[in-house]
Amino acid sequence: MKDNKLRLKRLIYYADDLQKIDKLMEEFLKLSNAKCIFLIDKEGHMISNKGLVQQINAETLSALVAGSFAATKEMARLLGEAEFSVMFHQGSRDHIHIAIIGDRAISATIFDEKTTVGMINLYSKELSVKLEKIFDIAIRRVHQEQQVEADYSESVKDKLNDLFKE
Amino acid sequence: MQINYARREISCKLVFYGPGMSGKTTNLEVIHQKVPDENKGEMTSIATEGDRTLFFDFLPLDLGKVRGMTTKFQLYTVPGQIYYASTRKLVLQGADGVIFVADSGAGKIDENNESLLDLSNNLAEYGIDITEVPLVIQWNKRDLPNALPVEELEKKVNTVGAKTIEAVAATGEGVMGTLKLAASLVLDRLNTPEEGGAAAAAPAAAPAAPAKEEAPAPKKEVYVAKVGSDAISRTFFLQYCQLQYRLASKEAEVEDFKKFSKEEYRKYLDSLINYSLLLQDAKKRAIKPPMEKINAQIDGFKKKFASEKELKEYLDKRRLSLESLKNEATKNEIINILILEVLPNIKEMMKISDKEVSDFYNANKAKFNNKTLDELKPSLTNLIKGAKKRQALDEFYGKLRGQAEISIFEDKL
Asked: Thinking of the domain B2-190, which architecture would CATH place it in?
C-alpha cells in the first residue's frame, strides 16, 4: 500500500463531468465577453479550455498560472491569509484574470477592451461556485467504467525508448 | 498526475531537484535539444540575469497517443540556491516523480545532503515520504577530475535507497537515460488500478490498509482519528461511511451521498477504528487473506444474476462495485482467520447446546407470540451464535484497543 498516497494524487476527470464544465465555461464566455478561458488544476496541468485559444501555448500558460498562483500563496501567508482567491494582470491589449475554484482548480480568463475586469470578476465568481459544485460531486462518485488499458505503462516505456535516444 | 478521459490525455509531472549549480537546467536543455520537435513544446525559463533559475524552468514533452491516450510529461526544475526554499516547495506540489541531480565533485557531499534533506522535508509537508516517491538520483559531472567514486557517493548521499544513474549533463551523457528511468518508475505506479473517482480516497481501493489512505493534499487534510501509527483522514472516513451504508442498505436504490447524524458517524468511526486495529494485528501475525475462497464467494454472488447486465444494474443502483464487495469479503475472511488464532476454541463456543436454546427461549418467551421452541430453534441458534461471535469480537477489539494508542478528534467529525 506504499503507493497509495501517490495514487491518490491522481486527478481524474471524466467525460460526463467535463461536458458540464465546458458548457458552463461557454456560458461564461458569452456573458462576460471574454476571449477565452482555461481551467487548470493546481499542479499545472490543463483540464479544459474554451474560446479563442489558438494563439496561446496552453501548456506553458497552465504551468505558469499554477506557478504564479502558488507564489502568491506565500504573499497571502505573510498577511495572515490562507490564499488570494483572485489575481489580475493588466496588459496593454490583453489582460488575464485568475481565480481559484474550490481547492483543486484555477480558472484563467483572457480578455481585452470588449469587456471590463468588473464583468469578468462578477461572472467568474458565479462560475467558480458552479464548477466547485461539479468537482465536489465528482470527487465523491466512484467511477469504475473507465480505466487506462493494462499495458499502457509498458507501451509508454517502449515509446520513450523509441523517441528519446541518447 | 492528471488523467483526463474527456481529452483522452494523461499528464505527469517530473521535477528536477538538487543543490545549486548541480546541472538541473542543463539536464532540461539537453532534453530539449535531443527530443524531436514534434514531441516537445517551448522551454520556458524564469531566470535571473546571471542565468540562475529564479522560479522554475518548464519543458512539456508530448509522446503522442499511446494506447489511445495522449501522453505528456511536464518537466520542471527548481532553483537550487538555499534561499529559494519556498519556491522549491511550490514547484514540488503534485510531482509524480523526482530526479535529484547531485554534484559528484569532491567537497559537494554536504551540499548534496543538505538539498536531499530539503527535498525530504518539502515532500513531508505534502504528506509524502521520500522513500515512497519515484526518485532517481543522477550522479552528475562524472567527468570532473575530482569526482568522487560512485561507491562513496552511494554510501554518503544515497541514504534513501533511490535508483541512481551516472551522467555528464554538460555533454548530454546519461541525461536521456535518467529521464527514461524516472519516467518508468512513475509509469510502474500507474499499473495499480485506480478505483476512486477524482482525487478522493476510495476505500474500495485498499482492503489491506484503510487507515493509511491519506488525502491528496495532506497539508489541508483533516484527520478524524489516529490509530497507532495510522491516521484516518476525513476524506477516507466519509467514503468508508458511504460504503458501509451502501453495503448494509436494503433499499433498492441508495442516495448519492447520504448524510448521517453525529451518533451514526461516531458508530462508523468506531467500526473503522476496529477495522484498522484488526488489519494492523493481522499484519503483525502475517495473516494473508485466502484469495481463492474470496474469489469463489464473489463468483457465487455473480451467479445469482441471470446476466452481466442485471449484475451491473444491481451494483449501479447501490453504487457498489465488485471490488468493494471483494474488499468486504476479504475483511470478513481476515476476521475469521484472526478469531481462530486468538480464540482457538471458538468452534467449541459456536456449538450451541439445546439447553442454551431452551434457556434463551424461556427467558424471552413473552416476546415470541406463542411460537413453540421447536419452531424457533434454528433461528434462535443462529441468533445466539451471532451474539457470541459479536461478544468474542468485542472482547478482541477491546484487547486491541487497550494495546493501541487511539486518539479521536471529535470536533472533526
From this structure: 3-Layer(aba) Sandwich (3.40)
User: Quick check: A3 and B127 CB within 8 A?
Assistant: no
- Cβ neighbours of B132 in A, within 8 Å: 2-3, 5-6
Of B291 and B82, the structure prediction assigns the larger pLDDT to B291
CATH code where residue A35 lies: 3.30.450.30
Residue A151 lies in a domain: no
**DSSP of B196-260:** SSTTSPPGGG-SS-GGG---SSTTT--EEEEETTEEEEHHHHHHHHHHHHHHH--SSS--SS---
Out of A42, A67, A151, closest to residue B56 by CB: A67
Integer angstrom CA distances of residue B284 from B135, B287, B294: 29, 8, 21
CA atoms within 13 A on the CB side of B230: 26
pLDDT of residue A144: 52
Does A39 map to a domain? yes
Best of A10, A13, A154 to disrupt the B interface by mutation (most B CBs within 10 Å)? A10
Q: What is the number of structural domains in chain A?
A: 1
User: Beta-carbon neighbour count of residue A20 at 10 Å?
Assistant: 15
From the list B317, B160, B183, B213, the residue with the least C-alpha distance to A153 is: B183
Residues of B in Cβ contact (< 8 Å) with A104: 199
DSSP B194: P
The answer to whether the Cβ–Cβ distance between A1 and B94 falls below 8 Å is: no
- ipTM of this complex: 0.84
Which residues lie closer than 8 Å to A161 by C-beta, 6 or more apart? B180
pLDDT tens digits for range B186-212: 988 876 554 333 333 333 333 333 333
* Domain-wise residue ranges, chain B: 2-190, 203-412
CB B34 within 8 A of CB B172: yes
**Binary contact (B202, A142; C-beta < 8 A):** yes
pLDDT tens, chain A, 166 aa long: 344 444 345 678 888 889 999 999 999 999 999 999 999 998 899 999 999 988 888 989 999 999 888 888 878 888 988 889 999 999 999 999 999 998 889 999 999 999 999 999 999 999 999 999 998 887 777 655 556 777 888 889 888 888 877 7
Residue A47 lies in a domain: yes
Residues of A in contact with B213 (CB under 8 A): 4, 8
* Identity of residue B85: A
